Amino acid sequence: MSKANRQLWNKFLAIAQPYFYPTDQKRSGAAFLWLLLLLVVFLFAALFVIVSAVSLSLQALFPQTFGSVAGGLVKLISGIINSPGSIVIGLMLLIPTAMAVVFRRNLIPRWQPWALLGLLLLLSLSVSGLNVIISFVGRFFQTALAEKDQPTFWRFLFVYAGVFVVGTPIVVIYRYVRDKLGLKWREWLTNNFLERYFRNRAYYDINSSDKIDNPDQRIAEDIRSFTVTSLGFLLIILGNVIDLISFTGILILISLPLTIALIIYATFGTVITILIGRRLIRLNFNQLRREADFRYGLVHVRDNSEAIAFYRGEEQESSQVRRRLTEVLQNFNFLIGWRRNLSFFTTSYGYFIIILPSIVVAPIYFAGKIDFGAISQAGFAFSQVLGALSIIVDQFDELSAFIAGIDRLAGFADVLDPEDKTANGTAGIDTVEDGRLALEHVTVLTPNGERTLVKDLSVALESGGGLVIVGHSGVGKSSVLRAIAGLWNAGTGKITRPQPDQMLFLPQRPYMILGTLRDQLLYPHTDSHTSESELQKALKLVNLESLPERVGGFDVELDWADVLSLGEQQRLAVARLLLTRPPFAILDEATSALDLKNEQLVYEQIQSTASAFISVGHRPSLLKYHQQVLELKDDGSWELSSSQDYVPKAEVFS
Questions:
Q1: What does pTM read for this prediction?
Q2: In degrees rounded to 5, what are phi and psi of residue 299?
Q3: CA-CA to 612 of 20 to 30 Å: which in 147, 344, 409, 453?
Q4: Side-chain half-sphere CA neighbours of 256 within 13 A
């Protein structure tokens, strides 16, 4: 296996294996694959036991009828039972059972996936067995038809119909179990990625960088495609292996030259397909990304429709959406071009398999060495074996899209579980949780480490006091808040801060969640049991007492970002703070949309609720609500003074 193929295989295992077997143990990948192989071996032996029991029972109950229909099968089963083959079957049952007992600690917690997988593989083996039966029954009744043997013809025609009666529920249940396992796997894998996505604010880091595009699509679409396609390929491979073993034996019995020609033909087709189609992998990868970019552009327009309408930016937005559409169509044009090139070969490859068996088998038939039914059986067996050997030819387009999906999910998983590193290899800002808020010699860098925003900052927030941070736009005021919150860690120094649940951050544009008015007020503690009278009281304190009546109550769900003005959203966020009552409040221009009267009302409530608070703002009116003023300057320096001694500068508050 080449290095690239080995890496791809390791990526696939890293995504697929955890649902069935834990990955946090040494050589877990090898253990998982061996257990999967032993499961197939066990099911193969179990199916043999079931078929043998049914066949021998029918032979005992209806010896003449069953013997005339499946006498060869009974003879084959009896031969295996009365030979060393019975010992092999026994070992095929015992060894997997023993291994399951040995690995029971890792298998029992995941019994449901293994049970569904086992049932699915058993049904898949049954379907392959039915195909073998159909090939023989079809041969017998077609030979009887050619020889005008009516009794034999009608007997095997009814057997043929009986096989379909038995096979129909097996195929239907097989498809149901396959879809059910895919659904369960998707549910588990999606929840696993979501847990990692929200852990340690990974969603923030991902969306703040350009390492991963469209994480929403990777979670919603790529995982669904991965689970469905993985099961599909697993079943295709298993079915092909069974078909290869079963029908190769049939082909050898009919014609050894046909078998040799088949192997040469399949090998040639596989090599040519890989050479022509390998470009499809990169094109499929790009198509997934560009389709997601196009969809995101449309969502962006929907989410910002009002702002675009105010600016009359339809032409610009239409231009950027059309540009993304052009990229989608250009890549898809290349994609369908390479699919066309591949189809020239695969289509002719598929047509020729109709002719090849007849070319080889017809002379044998004309020589009287085989019966007429053997021709159709040889054609059926040839197509089954060729399909097994030509999996890459037949599935290359789907396989290339699947490989692209594996690369996208593996890249996403790598970013979700990064090593603890900071920009430029620095140690990062040291954070200590305590009941106070202080910065000691803190230097704040941008996450990529390319720019220093604040140098050697030392400031402590006194209990019961307020600190306002001012400065030109872009000097790093909000960045200091991000460092306090732990969102940015690039830099040096030490930050002592309360536990996260003791702080509440109020951004300039409050976050309006998807939910009810009650949820808005209680966020992030939406499970809190707070009476409506308390909610109403908090709204009254921020001059929003009429809001529930206006919107239809506390339990109505609306698009709050559209229903409420920015000023109302900011006051609602303050009501959220009053209900949460955190010891520390941090406001990032959280009153910028309020008039001075409502601003005063808000800060009076904050002063009565929070033991200490920090504000970022551009209004001189904020100074009177705080005891300290921290001014950040363009060169990274800073100046700390009391609000009484601070002299407002026009350029800072412009």
A1: 0.70
A2: -65, -40
A3: 453
A4: 0
